[in-house]
């Protein structure tokens, strides 16, 4: 065996795949640039460390269960002037994750609530935090099933373990009593231990109707908001931007009677549960946006 062959065998046995793949290249380069022994070793090990780190991040990203991958760079803040960029800059420091405080993104459909949540989750993962994304509906359905099967505590751990839990689309569908109780338990258990990013199309005043009970809604909000940042987005749907440009869809201010939260989200996603779609207001745009545009 030549030394190179022996090195290759050793790298295989040690599982140093990245160095193995780049060995010839690394040696060739070293022959040219003649680095010191330490520099060469540094380059060699760095190559493996980088590869492991990106493998690890990929795995973490997959575990996070994000509906799509979008970053802050892909977010056009000029389209959404109601967003306080200073507030977003502060969130991007991830201090809220360190402090186990919460972020609540409120606003009508299509204004970027999920996009910003995903971007924050991605940043948190890059910084080594565990994150998990779930829609409120799926989360409550999952925990409700676990409860009925007598394994709520064990299942709850899935949602307690990650340092950052993203609960998307709170309030599109009302919760029944069991759902509200389970949600309360989850929020209480994470309180001051792990962050929640929550998105909703409902303002806090309407939360009673999500939970069906103002008392439980107050108890949930109390814990959720104690350490929290609320990002209120009052703008146009980004999804409708291009359609508006093409003149197919009137701007909100051109409508005779604008609906504050048009049901376009439900039209795009389809109702999840029979009878859950909000009644369409007269004067609200009736031309259903194309389903295909929903990026998630
Ligand atoms: P919401 O969750 O508020 O309903 P999303 O975050 O799902 O809205 O946004 C809808 C789509 O529009 C996504 O593809 C998202 O990436 C995009 N989007 C929304 N706002 C912006 C923005 N300001 N700049 C760039 N893309 C945006
Ligand atoms: Mg969304």
Q: Can you walk me through this structure?
A:
- Helix 9 links the parallel strand 3 and strand 4 (195-200).
- The termini are far apart.
- The protein is elongated, with a radius of gyration of 24 Å.
- The chain has a 5-stranded parallel beta sheet with strand order 2-3-4-1-5.
- The longest helix is centred in the first third of the chain and has 28 residues, at 37-64.
- The chain is 50% helix and 9% strand.
- By secondary structure, the protein is of the alpha/beta class.
- Helix 2 packs antiparallel against helix 3 (37-64) and helix 7 packs antiparallel against helix 8.
- The chain has 2 domains: 3-60, no CATH class; 72-269, P-loop containing nucleotide triphosphate hydrolases (Rossmann fold, 3-Layer(aba) Sandwich).
- The structure holds adenosine-5'-diphosphate and magnesium ion.
- The site of magnesium ion has 5 residues, from helix 6 and strand 3.
Topology:
Layout: H1 3-14, H2 17-33, H3 37-64, H4 85-92, H5 95-98, E1 102-106, H6 113-126, E2 131-135, H7 136-148, H8 152-160, E3 164-170, H9 177-190, E4 195-200, H10 207-211, H11 214-226, E5 228-232, H12 241-245, H13 264-269
Parallel strand pairs: 1-4, 1-5, 2-3, 3-4
Helix pairs in contact: 1-2, 2-3, 3-6, 7-8, 7-9, 9-11
The structure holds adenosine-5'-diphosphate (ADP) and magnesium ion.
Residues 70, 74-76, 79-80, 107, 109-115, 199, 238-239, 265, 295 line the site of adenosine-5'-diphosphate (ADP).
